[in-house]
Amino acid sequence: MNALQRLEEFVLSGQAGKKIRVSGTIREVTPSYYRVSGLSKFVKLGDLLGFDARGKTQIGEVVRIDQDGVTVKPFDGRIEAGLGMRVHHVGDISLSPDTSWKGRVINALGEPLDDLGPLLPGPRPMPNEAAPPSAMNRARVDKPLVTGVKAIDLFTPICQGQRIGIFAGSGVGKSTLLSMLAKCEGFDTIVVALVGERGREVREFLEGPIRDNLGKSVMVVSTGDESPMMRRQAPRTALSVAEYFRDCGDSVLLIVDSVTRYAHAARDVALAAGEPAVARGYTPSVFSDLPRLLERAGPGEDGKGAITGIFSVLIDGDDHNDPVADNIRGTLDGHIVLDRSIADQGRYPAINVLGSISRLADLVWTREQKELVRRLKSLMARFEDTRDLRLMGGYQPGNDPELDQAVTIVPRIYEALRQDPSMPLSRDAFLDLAQSLKA
Ligand SMILES: Nc1ncnc2c1ncn2[C@@H]1O[C@H](COP(=O)(O)OP(=O)(O)O)[C@@H](O)[C@H]1O
Ligand SMILES: [Mg+2]
């Protein structure tokens, strides 16, 4: 219970049950936030406040508190606050997910977006910003996972409970790759957060390969036209849902597309709160919010389920040193890089095999597989390094057996790695590769 609730209780106790609400007054309204006086001593950061307009309570979050008042950032994009309106405390955003939510599409506040009727609340509320399980109690991440995407299963294989990022500029194929991963069979539950996407892309995702898995999926959607508060909330809501299923013992796949849009939203909120910008307009709190969010994915405590997190990261202007991308890369257990130049050649998924790593790959590969992958990568590196030389006609077969081998085999590997969303997933990527190379 916070100070404001305690005060309300105190006032109510002297009033023999008469309903009285403690409220503040709106003193300033801007396009992105409003300021309330009278509540400074009774709220803390993150509390929810609201005012009543058009028969509904319009809620917002306290993002700054000072002597003169508190700054509130509303969840609804259109600010309908007016001077003098009374602002009161509203509960918190905790959500009570339920198994019956599978197959549903919800917004960042856990309200249904589909027309399948109201959502049944589950057995217990999940905190909006849960702390990750403590490092000492977390189960180990060592159970291999078959994603069915050949380039990933061969070169950056992942384990259950791993967190991995997909890094690329816009239009290189992040969302398409995520939608292919959503078809993966190895999970009990799939939770997808679509953050800041266009409405059309949300439809495409829902009607894409995830169709086969819709019955075990919960989709949390916040489109680009929604307020930064909603976009910042969507991945948190998705995590609360994923944590619920993890605690039920499920192996959960969490997909967030994209974390960058979450960072943009967190930046908007922090700027409204008056935080200074430090790196490319990002405020310090963005860089502490990101690991807090990403760290919630991962294995649960021993004996519980795990959340395998796959996060897409937009590289603005294909700049891989973007501070947000750097921060995310440092937090995750691996990154898959998609390259525009590969996509331009029509090779999808446009995974840059040599630039991608999975920090847990050694737990998945057998010794022979590891040796084979090392060998294939060195051939690919040779092939890519000599690309310009070969284009200029400076390559003669017969002088360098290693290069000759690279030139014959690498294009066939590339061909074998091609996969589009309409193709079936691969059950054994090594077997598939061997077969395509033999053919
Ligand atoms: N695996 C694939 N097979 C065929 N085409 C693809 C594939 N992945 C991406 N594309 C093409 O690239 C376009 C952009 O992909 P998208 O996933 O929307 O990119 P991003 O999410 O990175 O902006 C798609 O519309 C599609 O034409
Ligand atoms: Mg996309």
Question: Radius of gyration over alpha carbons?
Answer: 25 Å
The molecules bound to the chains, other than polymers, are: adenosine-5'-diphosphate, magnesium ion
Count of distinct strands: 17
Overall geometric form: elongated
**Average of the residue pLDDT scores:** 91
> Which structural class fits the helix and strand makeup?
alpha/beta
DSSP summary: helix tally:
14
Instruction: Please give the largest β-sheet.
Output: 9 strands, mixed
Which range does the strand content fall in?
15-25%
Please bin the fraction of helical residues.
25-40%
Distance between the termini: 68 Å
Which residues sit in consecutive blocks of at least 5 with pLDDT less than 50? none
Task: Describe the model.
With 439 residues, this protein is of the alpha/beta class. Helices cover 34% and strands 21% of the residues. It contains 14 helices and 17 strands. The strands form 3 sheets. Strands 7, 10, 11, 12, 13, 14, 15, 16 and 17 form a 9-stranded mixed beta sheet that branches. The chain has a 6-stranded antiparallel beta barrel with strand order 1-2-5-4-3-6. Strands 8-9 form a two-stranded antiparallel ribbon. A hairpin with a 4-residue loop joins β1 and β2. The relative contact order is 0.13. The site of adenosine-5'-diphosphate (ADP) has 12 residues, from α3. The site of magnesium ion (MG) has 3 residues, from α3.
